[in-house]
Amino acid sequence: MNEIEHKNRVVNRSELVFIYDIKDANPNGDPMDENKPRIDEETGINIVTDVRLKRTIRDYLHNFRKQAIFIKEETKEEGIQKTREERLKELKKDGKQLLRDYIDLRLFGATIAVKDMRMTWIGPVQFRFGRSLHKVEPKTIKGTTVMPAEEKKEKKAGTFTETQILPYSLICFYGIINENAAETTNLSEEDIDLLLDGIWNGTKNLITRSKVGQIPRFLLRVVYKEKNYHIGDLEKKIKLVKLDSSKDDKAIRDISEIKLDVREMINTLKENKDRIEKIEYEVNSDVVFLVNGEDVKGAQIEDKLKIDGIPVERLGLETVKPKEK
């Protein structure tokens, strides 16, 4: 790697917490189970895979930020999807060139094992599965189609359909940006800016029938001074509090019915203040936090995140205007 390629490389570890919600839709269908929303059967908690979030980020960076993406579908003229071998043969790039040209390889890594090319890069950015902060209850919505399918055209009419949705789910992701793996993929701070943009605005701009209405609610990045150190489990220190405590979790239908108790998270940040270099955040104005019994709405959370001189910066992602496709 030359000197220019090293410029602004990520050298500090970070932790990420991202919260978003979805209403009357399906945040991550399971193709092995009739595309139903993924549910932890033991807890009734909604699950969204890390792969789903990474796909959201990749698609946003490609479609709205004009970034080159390596892991994507490409088809040949006859409509058949290209194999990994065919794509690599066309690209004619070695590992160093692939990392230079594709932001998703620098962020998430990859394993390439084809003839004459075997490479593995551990992704500096890793997410756990997203999990809802409350129990959910899937609903089956029945409907009809206007146009009959080919095999049923003798019926001269449409047919019945079923769609699986969640009336409401407030989902929390946790992630780590690993400075050691960042050195291998040459991940830059500019890449991280695009990652955070992709998390927030990619979620908001994923406008399909099953995802329409997703709203990003809160994004937190804690950047550490100390190499090889992070607090861990920050997302577990955020608790959902219902305005009506008698209401069942499964009956929650809107962000206006809950608050986010962040007292434990802020106390933990205070305990680790000497190891924190800076805090970055973004927030939706409809979110109400609960801090030591006090309601704090939207961007007012910034005052609570200012801990003994630690720099706190709002990312401004709510005002970012995506480039046109």
Short structural summary:
The chain is 23% helix and 32% strand. By secondary structure, the chain is an alpha+beta fold.
Main beta-sheet annotation: 10 strands, mixed
SSE ordering: HEEEEEHHHHEEEEEEHHEEEHEEEHE
The averaged pLDDT comes out at 91
Subunit organisation of the chains: single chain
> What ranges have pLDDT less than 50 throughout 5 or more consecutive residues?
none
Distance between termini? 32 Å
Helix/strand-derived class? alpha+beta
Helix content: 10-25%
Radius of gyration: 22 Å
* DSSP, total strands: 18
Q: Tally the helices.
A: 9
Relative strand content: 25-35%
General form = flat
Question: How does the SSE layout of this entry go?
Answer:
Layout: H1 3-6, E1 14-25, E2 29-30, E3 36-37, E4 39-40, E5 45-48, H2 50-63, H3 84-91, H4 95-101, H5 103-108, E6 109-114, E7 117-122, E8 125-127, E9 130-135, E10 139-144, E11 160-177, H6 179-185, H7 189-204, E12 215-224, E13 239-242, E14 258-261, H8 263-271, E15 276-283, E16 288-291, E17 294-297, H9 301-305, E18 312-314
Parallel strand pairs: 14-16, 15-18
Antiparallel strand pairs: 1-11, 1-12, 2-3, 4-5, 5-9, 6-7, 8-11, 9-11, 10-11, 12-15, 13-14, 16-17
Protein model, in words:
There is one protein chain. It contains nine helices and 18 strands. It is α+β, with helices and mostly antiparallel strands and 325 residues long. Strands 1, 4, 5, 8, 9, 10, 11, 12, 15 and 18 form a ten-stranded mixed sheet that branches. It has a four-stranded mixed sheet with strand order 13-14-16-17. It has a two-stranded antiparallel ribbon with strand order 2-3. The longest helix is centred in the middle third of the chain and has 16 residues, at 189-204.
